Amino acid sequence: MKNHRIHGLVAAPHTPFHADGSLNLAVIEKQAAHLLSTGVRRAFIGGTTGESHSLNILWGTDECLLAGLALGARGAVGSTYNFAAPIYQRVMRAFEANDLATARAEQMRSVQMIARIAADGYMASAKAVMKMLGVEVGPARLPHSNLDAAQVKSLRSDLEQMGFFEWVKPNN
């Protein structure tokens, strides 16, 4: 029997909805293309974003990926891989090259990014970030709230100030 171990990042894609709450299947190809352009080769559909029934997973704390790698993980599932996969790709490459200083610095970017995104509500902010990156996945559904225009503007400004949009450029 062939062993199919997961190596690399597995994104837990945001479920795309129209404003009326119906599924927006037309955006899925764009989501997939975006993930591929950032080096994500696998997706965990209906997994951990909280918008569908959740499945148990072995590892999936994005802001602790480096710790997981140190404990022997070779793959990970995470929702921030949808928009920040290049950060995590660099964590993994640096770890594999035994460049722990770079791996720690990249992991700290993840921690800073997640803290800011979660400040206004993770799901709403994560979906706003996807839109900022050109992948419109629609609004968050209840029980999640959505950001208002001022919150989106503040989020964008804060992310720009921390360098987020440079950090997440494909092949950066």
CATH fold name: TIM Barrel
| Named CATH architecture | Alpha-Beta Barrel
Q: Per the principal axes of the C-alpha atoms, what is the gross shape?
A: globular
CATH class assignment: Alpha Beta
Strand content: 5-15%
Tally of structural domains: 1
Please outline the major beta sheet: 3 strands, parallel
How many β-strand runs?
3
**End-to-end CA span:** 37 Å
SSE ordering:
EHEHEHHHHH
Report the C-alpha radius of gyration, rounded.
16 Å
Characterize the structure shown.
By secondary structure, the protein is mainly alpha-helical. It has a single domain (about 10-165), classed as Aldolase class I (TIM Barrel), CATH 3.20.20. About 45% of the residues lie in helices and about 5% in strands. It is built from 7 helices and 3 strands. Strand 1 (about 10), helix 1 and strand 2 form a beta-alpha-beta unit. The radius of gyration is 16 Å and the shape is globular. The N and C termini lie far apart (about 35 Å).
